[in-house]
Every structure is written in C-alpha cells, then in structure tokens.
Amino acid sequence: MHRRTLATLGIVGTLVSAATLLTAQVRLNGAGATFPNIIYQTWILTYNQKFDNVEINYQSIGSGGGIRQFSDKTVDFGGTDAPMGDSAIAAIGANVLHIPTVLGAVVPTYNLAGVTQPIRFTPDVLADIFLGKITNWNDARIASNNPGLDLPRQDIIVVHRSDGSGTSYVWTDYLSKVSPEWLQKVGRGTSVNWPVGLGGRGNEGVTATVRQTPGAIGYVELGYAIINKMAVGVVRNKSGNWITPSLESVTTAAQGAMDDMGPNTDFRVSITDAPGAQAYPIASFTWLLLRKDYPDAAKSRELVKFVWWSLTDGQAKAPSLGYAPLPKEMLSWVEARLKTITSGGRPAWRGPTATRS
Amino acid sequence: MTTLPLEPVPPPLEQTTPSAEPRWRALRSVDRSDRIYRRILTTLALALPALILVILGVLFVSALPAVTRFGPSFLWTSTWDPVAEVYGAAPMIFGTLASSFLALLIAVPLALGVAIFLTEFSPRWLRQPVAFLVELLAAIPSVVYGLWGVFVLIPFLRSYVVPPLKAVLGWTPFFDGAFYGNSLLAGGIILAIMIVPYIAAVSREVLLAVPTSQREAALAMGATRWEAVRSAVLPYGRAGLIGAIILGLGRALGETMAVTMLIGNRHDIGLSVLQPAYTMAAAIANEFSEATTNMYLSALFEVGLILFVLTVVVNAIARILIWRVARGAAVGSKAL
C-alpha cells in the first residue's frame, strides 16, 4: 500500500517536473532559405527577448536543404523561397502548410558608364537579353523604350547566379511567364540551364561581377540592391506601367495577386507578373513550412504563436531590413490556415486572442 | 652514393631473433601494454584508409540514381539542365582539367625558378625572407584570393594583359572571342598563384637535398652555374620535382572558392582561355544547397565521385611516373 502510494507520487512528481520543464523551455529548430535569414534572425531575437520560454533556431542552409530537412523531420519548420512541388508534398503525406512571411523582389541591375537615368525594360526585352537574342545595349528595342537615353554601343554581358537560389527561381519564373520561348527553352528553377552569361555566387557575387564588367546586366534581390545603392532598372508591368522597384510596389503585387488566389489558397502561388496598376512584376513570397499535424503539443503551440507574432508585430521590422511586408488583407487568410494545425487531433492554436497570456 | 636522407631511417620495429627470445619473456609484463599500444596504433592507422573507403562508398551509393539513369554518357554529354533533369558533366570535367593544366603551365616555371634561385643563386641573406614570403602565399585563405582576383586581377587582365595577348595570339583558338573578365584565364592564374608556394617549397627541399658533390663535380668539369644546375642538380632531383608538381596539381584540381569566384561558372567547353568555364568543385559548392530534387542531388554526388576518382588517378599516375623516372635512387622519391 505504502509502496504503491510512493510509486504513484513518484510518477506524478516526474510528470509534473517534466511538464514544467516543457513549458519552461521549448526548443524549436528550423532551417532553410537564405533570402529571409536576416529578418528571421531579427524576429527570433526580438521574440526571445519577449518570451524567454521559447528557444528558436533558424539555420540558413538554402531552400533545397530546408525542404529536405523538413521532409526528413530533422527540423520543426522549414523555410523556402520556392514552394514544394506536388510530388514532394505527396511524398511526405501532404503533412505541410506553406505560410508566407514576407515578400521579396528581384531587380535587374547593370553597369553602363555614362547612363545616369534608370533604364526601362519591357518583359520581352529582359527575356531576349537573357536568351542571348539582344546582344548590344544600342539595340533598337531597348532604345525605343528609353527615349532621351544615350545608350552606348557595347556588348551586353549577362550575369546570373551560379549557386542555386530562390532569387533565380523568381527571376526565371517571371521570364517563363512573359516569354513563351524562355518557358520552352529554359523554364523555371532555383538553377537552370542558362543560355548565355557568367555565373556569380550569391547576390554579392553577381554584384561584384556586374560592377567589374562594363556592359553587364544581372539580377539581385531588391533589398540587397537598396542597401547597396545599386543602379536598378525600371520594369513594365502587366498593366503597362513603368514600375521602379520598391517595397511598396512589391506589397502591391501581392495585393493584386490575392484575387486570383482566393481565401482558400494554399499560398503556393507565384505572384510574378501580378495584376495591379502599381504592382512590381518580379516579386515573390517566401514561405515557412509548417506541418499540419505535430506530435508535440507544446512545440506546435509555441511555434504557431511565434509565426503569428512574426506576421503581425514582426512585420513592422520588414521594410528597414529590405523586405516587403505582407498585405494586411492577407492576415485573416493566414490566420485561418494556422488554426488548422493540430497536435494529436486537437488544434494547436485557437487564434490570436486565445494566446494572450 | 651519398644521399642526404630527407627523413631519418626508422629503427627496425621488431627484433625477434632467437637470441633475444629469453629477454622477451622477461619483459612479458611490458609486452602486454605493448600489445595494447600496438593495437591502438593499428586501429588509428587503419581508420584513415577505412574513412576513404567509406567516403567512396557513400559517394557511390548517393550517385547511384544518376549513374543508372545517365550511364557513362554522363562523362561526355554537356547539358546541365536542372529543370529538365538532364545532366552531363563534360564541361565541368573539362574545366577542372583545363584550369589545373593552365595553372601548372604558369606555376611550374615560376615555382621551379624560385626554388632554383633560392638554392643555387640567391645571396645567403635573401634566402630566408624570400622563402618565407613565398610560403606565406599558402597561408592566405582561398576566399581572399577570390576577392583579390575579382577586384584586382580581372581589371588588370582586362586593361593590360588581354589586349596585347589578343593582338598577338588572337588568331589562335586559345585566345578567341571576347573577354568578359571571369574566365578560364582568370581562374587558371589564381590557381597558379595558389599552388606556387607548394611546388616551390617542396622543390626547394628537394634541391637542397642534392649533395654538394654533384654540383662540385659538374663545376670541376668546367660547367657554368646554369649548366651545373641543368645537367647535375635537376636530373638528380627530378623525381622529387615531379612529386612537387603533382602535389600542386592535386591542390589545383580540388580548389573551390577562389576558382568559382573567377572562372565564370558556365557549363561550356571551349578552347579559348578567355571564355568562362566551370569546375567540378565549384559546381558542387554552388549548387548543392539548393539541389531540390533527388536526381539533381544524385548528379552532384556523381560529379563528386568523378572528382574523387580523378584525383586518385592523377596521384596514381604521378607515383608510377616517379617510380619509372627515379628507379628509387634520386632524392625526394622516398618522401613521396
């Protein structure tokens, strides 16, 4: 009798201490895309200062690695710049949600001495430059869109990313949409079989090559271009307006794409060439990969709380770091999706009001 | 022949002559700890070859999907299209070999020149500083070479080296086409600078090990300093010198960071050194992190496997070469 009571007490005690341990320190591990790394780290740091019961790690190992580790369940959440394909999702039993966090954009940048005004590019001109069909800066098709600009007679040297990257994915996704020839010959991907050009490693590699090579044109992330004060091109969007890339015009692009997405979207949508008068056409979400069902209730609750905080309070940090915030109208859609996450059959998170502690 | 051995002759490991037998028995207690000691050392010594085999095995297993899908044509097709999932490694194999060959072409005369100068002609006070500075080149991180290449070497090549080269040799296929900066030439030069210290340092040791009697004999025959070097010193140390060059080649084949920053990363085969190219190591480093599909990943593993095999083959050829040329006698052959 005595012995049994003691044993029960012991078990209860262990359970209680285990429970307090769990609430005291939840450790969440994530890995994936490098593009959103800066803002994710900032979010994690700020969030940790406010809620010290959670410890979050995010390793920027690249989207491919993020998807792999998420699929192998070695991390609790993944990050990716290119959404998972249908077959990849089927391979993990569809146990994944794509949650957009911020927006990025990719901008053309060039090195052309003596040209002070931004050069305007139509979608077909960009595609043909990267296809190697337009080879000189004084080409009539560039000149006709840039009246008043004295474009030199100089070979165009295309610079692309040599490493696989979400930036390349967005760029090639855009070119695939605006140019049937590009779609057929090259297609979209984190790395593709480039028809022409030099490869630079990372945004910094492309930037260095462009800066060192007269007549070069490349593409880099908008945030990177802003922070480094680079010469960026103006691109004509679907509505026919010339759009100077900016964070606002990127958020506008996401807004414009919302009609096509609809509230029941799985968010795996491309928003390049989006409708909207002021939408910048070469933009994209970056996503967090969450599971639809987590075995660990405490983990899933804290994870969703963190994600929700990032999408609300956290968004204010985005512009200063070179990321475009999500359109506010999208929040209710994301909230609905986050509420579907379960742990052992029970919802992990009941909404923003219920989590206030 | 009175060779100066590069390393002291190791004492014989075991002496199990019959006369020593009783003494062995007396030392039984020591013998046991010796056995443990020997076992530990054997394990450690075998761990490294085992590691190589494990690496080879992992590479092969991971590369298997690509090997079965593309077969041997992986080696000579040159499309690398991750979207269509068609992979061929020929441009990378070519680029790896071409950039390393170009590097050797530049580095070998330079490094041998440095080594000969330092051992034969240099004033005594200059030897140490020059040798030290040359070897210091080996201490510079690869990425720093890359940065230097992008911001100093390429603009320099564009302004001062390529225009005269093209003017004189532009008609050959090797200097055909426009120069964009990032190119086989830039990659080869940076590799050359990186392997010079290795070749120079080992060559210098080899030449230092050539006995003075060889030089004196040549000089006594009426040879000039240069003739003495050419006819007595260099032949004497040739096995060691070849070994030094192969050491540099091995490093050039696997170098990644500086090359990928300068070579242009283009899946293309061309004879012109002014054109961009690609190397296997650079491709793996570039594309591994975002290789999203299994076939893509597997193709990269196969590239790794090819690089591994290539390095082993190069080393094997080098050894055969040394054995054939040296026949055991010349200095430095033992060190390799």
Written description of the protein model:
The complex is a heterodimer of chains A (357) and B (336). Chain A is elongated and about 65 Å long. Chain A is built from 13 helices and 14 strands. In chain A, the strands form three sheets. An eight-stranded mixed β-sheet of chain A has the order 2-1-3-11-4-8-6-7. In chain A, strands 5-9-10 form a three-stranded mixed β-sheet. Chain A has a three-stranded mixed β-sheet with strand order 12-13-14. The longest helix of chain A is centred in the first third of the chain and has 23 residues, at 2-24. Chain A has helices at 2-24, 37-50, 63-71, 86-91, 123-131, 140-145, 166-178, 180-185, 202-212, 222-227, 247-261, 297-311, 331-338, and strands spanning 26-32, 54-60, 77-80, 97-110, 120-121, 157-161, 198-200, 216-221, 234-236, 242-243, 283-290, 293-294, 342-343, 346-347. Chain A is an alpha/beta fold and 357 residues long. Chain B has 336 residues and is an all-alpha fold. Chain B has one domain: MetI-like (MetI-like fold). Chain B has helices spanning 21-26, 28-70, 90-121, 124-136, 142-169, 184-208, 212-220, 225-236, 238-254, 257-262, 280-287, 294-326; strands at 80-81, 86-87. Chain B has a two-stranded antiparallel ribbon with strand order 1-2. In chain B, strand 1 (80-81) and strand 2 (86-87) form a beta hairpin. In chain B, helix 2 (28-70) crosses helix 12 (294-326) and helix 7 (212-220) crosses helix 8. The model of chain B is unreliable at 1-5 and 330-336 (pLDDT under 50). The chains are: A alpha/beta (357), B mainly alpha (336). At the A-B interface, helix 3, strand 7 and helix 9 of A face strand 1, helix 5 and helix 11 of B.
